[in-house]
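Sequence only, no structure available. Ideas?
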Amino acid sequence: MAAEGLSRLQGHPLPVESRGLLAEALRELEALARLLGVRLALLHQALAEVEGEEGGQPLLGRGLGAFLEVAGEVYLLALGSRARGHPLEDLARLAYDLERAVALAWEGSEEIPWELRSEVGEFLEEALLSAWQSAAHAPPPEKEAWIAAMLRWSEVQLLREEHPMRQRILARWRRKAHGA
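Reply:
I predicted one. Tokens follow.
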């Protein structure tokens, strides 16, 4: 589903004749973001049941790989001792990957302004967060904590690879952190 939505974005400028195609691709990507949010909430709930929890977060401090079945689907977890299944951190990783996927789909396209790419990232982020919140029966993340998690993850990703797209995503989150 995501591949179809992203492939529809690739190579298409923003003229009026492409807007219907863009809307269709965004609907598919929104559905993916919502599905990821729900699946992540179910995964955290299953982890809490299997591993226990502390402070509302699943404990995964053993550094072991494990198979979990959640809603009829099997997941492989291979988390180290520092990866404790913190919902906010996991949400930040997914939101970053969604934003990066859209940016990569439009990479090299000069017709599509970065402001639109950022708006699409925010749209998908909101879909992910609201679906997770609904499925987890949890309050939304605090705005400051969310921005801090996204900023940390954006910085980590830039350290992995110096790429203009990663720099722009990080710059966007820095602006949000400074209230610009």
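Residues 61-65, 78-83 have pLDDT under 50 and may be disordered.
Hope that gets you unstuck.
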